[in-house]
Amino acid sequence: MYTYELDEEKVFNSGHNACPGCGEALAVRYVLNTMGPKTIGVVPPSCIAIICGPQPYSSMRIPVYQTTLEASAASAAGISRALKRQGKYDVNVLAMAGDGGTYDIGFQALSGAAERNEDMVYVCLDNEGYMNTGAQKSSSTPYLAVTSSTPGGKPSDKKDIAEIMAAHRIPYVATATVGYPDDLARKVAKARDMEGMRFIVVLTPCLDGWGVADDGAVRVSRLAVDTGFFPLYEVEDGERYTINHGPKGIPVERYLEQQKRYRHLDEEQVKEIQAGVDHRWRLLQARVEVAEGHAKAGPRTTNRMRGECT
Amino acid sequence: MSATATPPRNSPPANEVQMADDVRMLLTGNHAVSYGAMRARPQVVPIYPITPQTPIAEKISDLQLAGDFDVDLMTAESEHSAMSACITASLTGVRVFTATASQGLMLMHEMLHYASGARAPIVMVNVNRTIGSPWGFWPDQTDSLAQRDTGWIQYYTENGQESLDTVIQAFKVAEEVLLPAMVIHEAFYISHALEPVTVPSQERVDAYLPPFDPPHKLDTEIGESWGNVVNQDMFYRHRKDLGAAMDRVLEASVRADAEYKDTMGRGYGILEKYRTEDADLLIVAFGAMVGTARVAVDMLRAAGKAVGLLKIKLFRPFPIDAVRAAVAGVPRLVVMERNFSPGGGGVLHQELKAALYGMPDPPAVHGYLAGVGGVNVSPKKMVELAEKALTDEPVPGSVWQR
Fold first, then answer.
1. Banded pLDDT at A292 (limits 50, 70, 90)
2. Residues of chain A positioned with their CB less than 8 A from the CB of B226
């Protein structure tokens, strides 16, 4: 059996409002308890806002500003800049948004913040749809997955947000998931101790939206990685790739069969998804090779002044 | 954060604004705003460019580069993000300024409500410009008037000097009542017109406007949060509190203006009566048309017509009691305004009628839609319209006049 130990400081409390067995609540625990109490949180409407708790309750032992759905990165930037004007360089700013608030409506603000290299840790808790409003599709919903707005299966692919963010050449981009908590906590700690824009997308299974058993979040999360559906990797400055966990030879069907949203798939469609997973894995490996080649060719030529946001 | 590792390049020559005394400068309305903002010492300015606001942003950038304006200038990727950052920077405890116009204000609309709900005392200048479709760049107040229900204080100014002075006053009022404030002047007539403007010394402004130090803020030592879901009762109380703060703006604005006049020698009031003695008719106006109306009133008085002017400066909250007192005993009013609410008419016309409803012996009120879309309303035209209002029977709705 897989065991892990976390050195965590309790910022996220029990008694929160997530569904029992929620993958996202688990992610919030690792993220917040690693970020620590010297953190100001920004949360848009999402499951995370529910997990925060309604006034006057709070499940988080830090100040949290709840913003509008599209504004997380801009709101976090305002806090970050104001803190620095007050000389408070030791306070972390953490945005925690869902995939809708990141891939879709919040993308403009996120891209703008990345271009300006705003000083924040932005964590996307990705449950692949608008789960808080009844499981509608987002641009993070994978190909052929059933949602309440794509009852026949989503006809288009999942947006590759990690690559999009890496293309902004920000200091740090990582993928993570709750099935690999030590990897997740390590990445959050690494991001916390860096400067500038840091982005982590955390795959967080939604029991209800995905149709997963109450005790299945962690199992499904690990299968997402072990089948190669969601490889775990890091990209520094948009070019230094490190793959942490990739496919372990398990067919993607083992991942899909755990979830009701894929129950309608026929054999051909499963093959099509497998082919897509294989193809993306080859592309990721190719990017690592290209990056290694570049590294051998000489020092990087990024123009960014590190830590400067003006 | 604002410091750079290398000395700034392309710095403008050492600026004349680093002076201990007030200085008289030839400035556009927009540049006057930039100097006013600089004197108010905001620490963070998230901003996005839009015609005809851009000279405000450009001048602030120049003043920052020259070292005159110590500010973190956040070049946002949209007005929505600019306002989003304004709110959180303000809630984190720093003074915040921004500026926009027209479509930019429209894009901010959601966050304007958010700002007042969060009680963030941001000061923003809006340069009145037509809203598309179709495209236009012309002075028209419909953009800011469409924000009248957002919980922002609204001041309308008639020239660059007043805009500069009102930006500084607006911080005083906004930070006292914890509501955001909008200072509004019109495209081109004010924003791009050059006039002599007095820029008050930093020392005087510092004496007038103390540093921003809010009791509540986003701070890990305090632990307060913002924006959580509330129940119906809490929402009711929250809106009532916001309304009570808005009510305090009337007195706070009068006081802030009086103190400003004591310090700087210039004051404006929340409204102004110009040559209203024994008037048969008052022209009621706000914004750039006030300046034209002063000339028209002088012309009418010279011709023996008892016509005066009522300038509305504070529009939100609407100064009902002050307006009623100002028009008491006057038989007729004519609103001349550069905005249009389809299905409603002129917005000031509607507001004025509502304010006077139930008043004993109220004046008859004409509403003239003059200057909508930025068409010129000359002093001569205003004289003509005023003469018409002296004889025509008023009708309930607003009337197009060209």
1. confident
2. 63-66
Per-residue model confidence (pLDDT) at position A293:
85
> Chain B residues contacting A, CB < 8 Å?
1-2, 4-5, 43-44, 46, 72-78, 80-82, 84-94, 110-111, 114, 218-220, 222-231, 234
CB contact under 8 A, B92 and A116: no
Strand-pair partners of A130: A136
Rounded Cα distance, A247 and A269, in Å: 20
Chain A: residue whose CA lies nearest to B90: A82
CB contact under 8 A, B85 and A77: yes
To 10 degrees, what angle do helices A107-115 and A72-85 make? Answer: 40
pTM (two decimals): 0.95
Confidence of residue A310 (pLDDT cuts 50, 70, 90): very low
Q: What is the dihedral of CA B276, B278, B281, B284, to 10 degrees?
A: 20
For CA atoms A131, A135, A139, A143, the dihedral sign is: positive
| Helix (H/G/I), strand (E/B), else coil: A68 | coil
- Using CA atoms, how far apart are residues A235 and A31, in angstroms rounded to an integer? 19
Query: Which candidate from B84, B91, B220 shows the least CB-CB separation from A39?
Result: B220
What residue type is assigned to position A230 of the chain?
A: F
Partner residue opposite B218 with nearest CB, options A40, A68, A111: A40
Report ipTM for this prediction: 0.95
Nearest residue in chain A measured CA to CA from B46? A78
Across the interface, of A81, A116, A308, the residue whose CB is closest to B4 is A308
Determine how β-strand B281-285 pairs with β-strand B271-274: unpaired
Would you call B288 exposed, middle or buried from its count of C-beta atoms within 10 A (0-12, 13-18, 19+)? buried
Residue A68 CA to residue A75 CA, distance in Å, equals 9
Q: Are A276 and A143 in contact (CB under 8 A)?
A: yes
- Give tens-digit pLDDT for A99-140: 999 999 999 999 999 999 999 999 999 999 999 999 999 999
Per-residue pLDDT at B18 exceeds 80: no
A94 to chain B, any CB pair closer than 8 A? The answer is no
User: B interface mutation test: which of A39, A46, A55 has the most B CBs within 10 A?
Assistant: A55
Please indicate whether, in this complex, the C-beta atoms of B88 and A53 are within 8 angstroms of each other.
no
Task: Among A75, A88, A197, pick the best mutation site for testing chain B contact (most B Cβ within 10 A).
Answer: A75
Return phi, psi of residue B228, to 5°: -55, 160
- Please, what is the Cα angle at B306 between B301 and B308, to 5 degrees? 80
Whether the CB of A9 is below 8 Å from some CB of chain B: the reply is no
Chain A residue with CA closest to B235: the answer is A55
Distance (Å, rounded) from C-alpha B328 to C-alpha B361? Answer: 8
SS3 A66: strand
Share of chain A above pLDDT 90, in %: 89
Closest alpha carbon to B33 in B112, B123, B108, B110 = B123
